[in-house]
Amino acid sequence: MAADPEKELFLKEFGQGYGYPNAPKNIDEIRATEFKRLNDVVYLDHGGATLYSELQMEDIFKDLNSTLYGNPHSQSSCSLMTNDIVGEARRQARRYLQLSLFALLYRTVLSFFNASPGEYKCIFTSGATAALKLVGETFPWSSQSTYMYTMENHNSVLGIREYALSKGAAAVAVDIEDAADLDRRHGGKSDVKIIPHTVQRRGEDGCRTKEQTSLVIHTIYLHFRQNATFRSEIQPRPESAKLLKKTYFSGGTVAASIADVDFYKRRDGIEEHFEDGTLSFMSIASLHHGFRILNALTMSAISSNEMGPTVSFNLKRPDGSWFGHREVEKLASLSNIRFTGCFCNPGACAKHLGLSHSDLLSNIEAGHVCWDDRDILHGKPTGAVRVSFGYMSTFEDARKFLKFIESSFVSLPAQATHLDLLRATPFHPVAEGYVLGFNSMQLSIPDYFFLLDVESPLSSTGLLHDREWLLKSLSGEILTQKKVPEMGFITTLVDLKLGLLIVESPRCKEKLQIELKSGQSIAGREVMEIYSQRYEVQGYCNEVDIWFSNAVGRSCTLVRSYASQNHMCAQSRSIRMCRDVDTRLNFVNEAQFLLISEESIADLNNRLRSKKHNGPNNRPPEVNPVRFRPNLVVSGGKPYAEDGWRSVRIGERNFTSMGGCNRCQMINTTFTAGTVQRSNEPLATLASYRRLKVLSLVM
């Protein structure tokens, strides 16, 4: 194997604790034999869901194929055996009479968390959120209760607040800060300062009220011992379970009940009291194999990193503006690097991104919701990149990630080229805007969606009938080409003279003609909410829905937008602008129009031709303006000149630039010969030299 100077240098400094030196296998052997499916993929989203090893799955399959596990609530021999084992483990936790799977499991789980089996109980839930919900819904909240939680907490913890406030209890968020003059790693103790926020309450009418924090809680200092390890040294109190008051009972939690009389008797065991229905005993049986792997690696080796396995960050451009976390995530996926571009911790986001309450509410009003593409609003990030490592992560994973950051985002001093200067130097817009005339620059309207000409009618929502329809599943989910690429094979034509929308698909024998005057609409109008925006929509007859269901290969319905009451607020580079209700939107992400120039596309194609490609015959992909799905295509200027336009005039119409539209991975998808083809181009090439995006406009 060729020498790797970078890794040798890393091992020289950190090799003593790297790669589980005392385990049966080192990290390189584990990765090569138990995670072969990763291949060239760098997986850095273990905070969201870590990976199972192939050896673990082999052991689980062998176990399930050789052992007959039965429902412990049934009366068959295998069920009675399971029931006896579980019951014995619950009733006599200090002693396990049999080395059965369930007895071994309970002992393993409790010892893993440094809990004595004689003092603590193990209640199985579907996950951490279900466990938190169980506590929230069974705690006896009252006006004398106070729910305290840290600001930097998951939404699943914040959700408990709803139980508290609905019962008249108080809720207060607290910040936790380490004392600056003490070092946890070297000192004997570390002071932790708890700073409470405003106390929250709800009145009898359900309205929110606030109280002065000083009347309820004072600043608190806590001391933690120096050698706190992964295993918690702050042990829970089992008698706390008696405080939780459960209302619902089910099979497994009830000892007896009478159907027509208000009578039931619960089982006595704490676990049986909270575990409704049949345990997921097949999943529970699999836990043993996972713990066996962790024990083989030793928890001390896994938890030796004092900083933890998670890094959250944002990236800035040289001019001080931010790269959006979704943009970073999309570009990373082109390099086979997987991580999350956001996370459900609103308190941490607000605190570390400097977002005030008004900022958060303004973002919501602008349509921002969790997991969407609105990663920069009003010049500030709405989230952050989160990279999290797992026990199978390697030096090579970290190095590939850092090289991706360096090659895609780090600006290094170098001899500037013309294109570098074009990218780095801001354009100076013409005061009265940019005029598109037919003598200097040419304007065209692509025919990939609606076959219209330059004199196409305009409406208050943009081009007449543009993005006026959408498909949704029977469950209400909005269908997009990202989720349903078969939509890309549908072609459309608006015939204004005949008053028809004509659609075709290779999956349907006949064309479908839809009257623009709503002749085929049958359902009454209803209000539909999409990404915090409200639309008045109307559906169509069964014939129309069947045609589109056949075209996309799944059941769906077609709806049309008739009125949008959306108040449009958006960030326009350095200024924040709001449009009134006269500027309305149909089913669009950001703006009424997208504009691109032929010269910009030509420059991109030149760059694509200069790269080495592994496609058919090693030919570079050829990109045309349609790939970017613009409404307006201009020609006659310089590449990327449109980046600097603040306004555009076409004839007697004035248009205001809303800045760049968020770049979408759909530009890497082509639809040819009835097949969907995906690649990493042209987005990968764009990412190598360009950060500005397709220009969006409003009237």
From TrEMBL:
Q: Which PANTHER family does the entry link to? A: MOLYBDENUM COFACTOR SULFURASE, MOLYBDOPTERIN COFACTOR SULFURASE MOSC
MOSC domain span: 556-699
Gene3D superfamilies, alphabetically? Aspartate Aminotransferase, domain 1, Type I PLP-dependent aspartate aminotransferase-like (Major domain)
Region annotated Disordered sits at 608-628
Spans through the membrane:
none
**Which InterPro entries does UniProt cross-reference here?**
MoCF_Sase_C, MOCOS_middle, PyrdxlP-dep_Trfase, PyrdxlP-dep_Trfase_major, PyrdxlP-dep_Trfase_small, Pyrv_Knase-like_insert_dom_sf
Q: What is this protein called?
A: MOSC domain-containing protein
